[in-house]
Amino acid sequence: MWALSVVPADVQDRDGGCWLLAAARRWLPRVREVIVDRGFSRRFVEFVRAVCRWAVATTARPPAGFAVQPRRWVVERTFGWLVGYRRLRCEYEYHPETSEAMIQAAMIDLMLRRLHPVD
Questions:
Q1: 36: helix, strand or coil
Q2: What are the Cα distances from residue 73, in Å, to 51, 78, 97, 118?
Q3: Residue 40: what pLDDT?
Q4: Between the N and C ends of the chain, which has fewer C-beta atoms within 10 Å?
Q5: What is the pLDDT of residues 45-104, one digit of tens each?
Q6: Is pLDDT above 90 for 37?
Q7: What residues contact residue 40 under an 8 Å CB cut-off, 6+ apart?
């Protein structure tokens, strides 16, 4: 995970995304494209193109039934990994910063287990 931002429920995803990407563009210079779902507005897309100078790809509406969406599986797989941590299954935290710390700790654990598997 390259960047993470947990925002309170009264903040729209697109606004939190703007804050996150504006900060992340400084330390992610090689990023050229951002993939977002249809919930992000035109204002968000214009912000990313103007401020970050990145291309924005919006996922298409899935057809009726199940269909694998390009690159969407990466996000869903990561959510699946995080659900393996009991503290991340439900939202127990009062402060967004605590949630961010728990997610970062889980991702560190996942990376370390992949780098040095314990039998």
A1: strand
A2: 27, 8, 26, 27
A3: 79
A4: C
A5: 888 889 888 998 877 666 777 777 777 777 788 888 888 888 887 777 788 888 889 999
A6: no
A7: 13, 14, 17, 58
Alpha-carbon span 43 to 65, nearest angstrom: 30
Find residue 33's DSSP bridge partners.
Answer: 55
Structure tokens at 111: 């990376």
Give 57's strand partners. 35
The one-letter amino acid code at 87 reads: R
The answer to whether 84 and 75 have CB atoms below 8 angstroms apart is no
DSSP characters over 47-94: HIIIII--EEEEPPPPPSS--PPTTHHHHHHHHHHHHTSHHHHTT--S
Quote the CA–CA distance of 59 and 75 in Å, as a whole number: 12
With beta carbons less than 8 A apart as the criterion, state whether 2 and 25 touch: no
